[in-house]
Specification:
The structure holds two protein chains of two kinds. Chain A is α/β, with parallel strands linked by helices. Chain A has one domain: Vaccinia Virus protein VP39 (Rossmann fold), CATH 3.40.50. Helices cover 34% and strands 25% of the residues of chain A. An eight-stranded mixed β-sheet of chain A has the order 3-2-1-4-5-8-6-7, sandwiched between helices. The longest helix of chain A has 11 residues. Chain A starts with a helix and ends with a strand. In chain B, strand 7, helix 2 and strand 8 form a beta-alpha-beta unit. In chain B, helix 1 packs across helix 2, helix 3 packs antiparallel against helix 4 and helix 4 crosses helix 6. The chains are: A alpha/beta, B alpha/beta. At the A-B interface, helix 3 and strand 3 of A face strand 9, helix 9, strand 10 and helix 10 of B.
Chain lengths: 201, 384
């Protein structure tokens, strides 16, 4: 089983035998990997019905739903990890979603594209247009990403909720490295970042 | 994937469990039956470890003939496309059980049977039954068969209500459950439709206050109207339009009379006519009543999540986009409650324009999803 690099980093943050909720689990690739290699109790939420059906047909426990409205149904500390991969920027209320993640998970693992990456900055500076890159290929008018942020923005919001960032991994091309969440360098060179966040009991 | 339309199983012989003794079956109403017969069919074989049993629960007008040819109607069993060798409920691997519900008319004790106290048909002397009473009878059968734990209990519509009742009342005996096209309570609109059907039966002069069998008559007209009204609710506007539109039946123009001018009228009349040949009018009253009374949250302090507390069983909830009798919102209420109980739940909604009856139809995506679920459950439980 091969995962895209970011999902591999997320998977490596999850300890064996834990209870995991993947919010926005797509076709279930990460959940299937975690169930097979880490023996986790894997659950998912997915917005698209095709995604949900594909997951259940693969034997995964996935419900149709979305991060904005459905996380409130789960009891506190129901999971060891709640994963939100490349989804928070597409939610209506990212702050509330992160609070919910911290409530229902002992830990949250959140990844987000970095809008302060140097290519974004350069495009905005030179062309004066909303940036379009390989990581964020949609034009401004048809992007699902309604709440873009930088690595620093996300770190600040997390801190402002009284949550602790235990690890920050910056991804740039194929390479990944541990960074400080407020590192100016990471905020320029990270294409995206993965945050491991301690939940709020 | 194997062909879902693989040949049907040979016809199954209905078997009988006879329970007798004081209060052989105690009912929610407080009444009890001293003599109860549970009619059931089985398909496939129980394995040595007794871990491969799956119970299928039928809907309002269904019966124990889930697979192969139904000897009463001469047509395929109601879930024949799901039950058989290589099918979703694979009879080469699983032991499939399907019972006729209490109050039914296909062999299990119901209002048309003889009341031992009077020597005459029960008629309206039959006690009012509930979904939980149906499930209690199923539990007694499972006990009788020596099965401690069901690999799965599955069903659609009223069958789904029984599945939910199993989850609430006998969850320790389930590995998994599939409530399909169902709800945790019967809605006001659905009660209203049922009441129309019941009133049609009772308005038939041949109903005779429920004692029609004593008089050698049958309220066929009333029961047919009940079936016609109900049948509309099992379809969808889009399906009716696609199947019939405004097409006329065997004529070039309207007759300016009240014959079945339109194909849809002719179709409904046929549905009504064929239904009265196989179904008992009083059974229809009792079983619709049981559905009306179903409200799982009310049985658990008003909180549906409490019905599923400590649930270990895996659950796959399913709904259909065009089902307006048990719409997706009802499935989502079940899913929300299961999530609140931190249960292991999957939820799928299938896109189809065929309405409520979709769960009885050939929908390859549905087969693939259910197969994935049941195979994962079997692997989890170590059933080969």
């Amino acid at each position: 089983m091969s995962l895209r690099p970011e999902l591999k980093i997320i998977a490596d943050m999850v300890s064996d035998g834990s209870r995991v909720l993947d919010v926005g689990c797509g076709d279930g690739a990460l959940l299937e990997y975690l169930a097979a290699t880490r023996k986790v109790d894997a659950r998912g939420i997915e917005l698209s019905q095709e995604g949900v059906n594909a997951c259940v047909a693969r034997g995964l426990s996935v419900v149709q739903g979305d991060a904005d409205s459905d996380l409130a149904d789960y009891p506190a500390a129901a999971f060891d990890y709640v994963i939100l991969s490349q989804t928070i920027q597409a939610t209506r209320l990212p702050r509330t979603v992160l609070q919910q993640i911290a409530r229902i998970g002992r830990r949250g693992i959140v990844s987000t594209p970095n809008f302060a990456h140097w290519r974004m900055r350069l495009q905005l500076l030179t062309r004066g247009c909303m940036p379009v890159t390989d990581t964020l290929p949609n034009a401004w008018h048809d992007t699902p990403n309604i709440h873009m942020c930088s690595v620093r923005d996300f770190a600040e919001m997390t801190q402002s909720l009284g949550l602790t960032i235990e690890r920050t991994v910056s991804l740039n091309g194929g390479s990944a490295r541990d960074v400080q969440p407020f590192s100016a360098r990471a905020n320029i060179f990270a294409e995206s970042a993965v945050f491991l966040i301690a939940g709020k009991p | 994937m194997p062909d879902e339309r693989a040949p049907s199983l040979p016809p199954a012989e209905t078997q009988i469990l006879r329970l007798s003794g004081p209060r052989a079956l105690t009912l929610d109403s407080g009444q009890a039956l001293d003599e109860v017969i549970v009619a059931y069919n089985t398909y496939g074989a129980l394995n040595a470890a007794r871990t491969n049993a799956i119970l299928l629960c039928h809907a309002l007008t269904g019966d124990q003939h889930a697979a192969s040819v139904n000897p009463v109607t001469g047509r395929d069993g109601w879930w024949d496309q799901m039950v058989g060798p290589g099918k979703v409920f694979d009879t080469d691997r699983f032991f499939i059980i399907c019972t006729n519900v209490i109050g039914g008319c296909m062999g299990t004790t119901g209002p048309k049977d003889i009341d031992p106290k009077t020597g005459k048909s029960y008629g309206l002397n039959f006690p009012v039954i509930t979904i939980r009473d149906m499930v209690r009878a199923q539990v007694l059968l499972i006990d009788h068969l020596g099965i401690a734990e069901l690999l799965c209990v599955a069903g659609g519509s009223m069958g789904g209500m029984q599945v939910l009742e199993w989850l609430a009342s006998f969850q320790e005996r389930l590995v998994s459950a599939m409530p399909i096209a169902t709800a945790a309570k019967h809605s006001a609109q659905n009660i209203a439709f049922h009441e129309v059907g019941r009133q049609a039966i009772m308005a038939d002069p041949d109903w005779r206050g429920g004692a029609y069998l004593d008089h050698g008559v049958f309220p066929a007209k009333g029961l047919a109207v009940a079936r016609m009204a109900a049948h509309i609710t099992y379809l969808s506007e889009a399906a009716l339009q696609r199947k019939f539109g405004r097409e006329l039946q065997d004529r070039a123009s309207v007759s300016y009379a009240f014959d079945a001018d339109f194909q849809v009228e002719s179709y409904l009349r046929h549905q009504g006519r064929s239904f009265v040949e196989r179904f008992d009018a009083n059974s229809y009253l009792y079983i619709t009543r049981a559905m009306d009374y179903f409200d799982l949250a009310a049985d658990h302090g008003g909180q549906l999540a409490l019905a599923f507390k400590w649930l270990k069983a895996r659950v796959c909830v399913a709904s259909f986009t065009s089902d307006w009798l048990f719409p997706t919102i009802e499935a989502k209420r079940i899913v929300h409650a299961l999530n609140a109980a931190a249960a292991n739940v999957s939820f799928v909604e299938f896109a189809t324009d065929t309405g409520h009856d979709a769960f009885l139809l050939d929908i390859p995506e549905m087969f693939a999803t259910f197969r994935g679920f049941i195979d994962a459950v079997a692997a989890h439980r170590g059933v080969k």
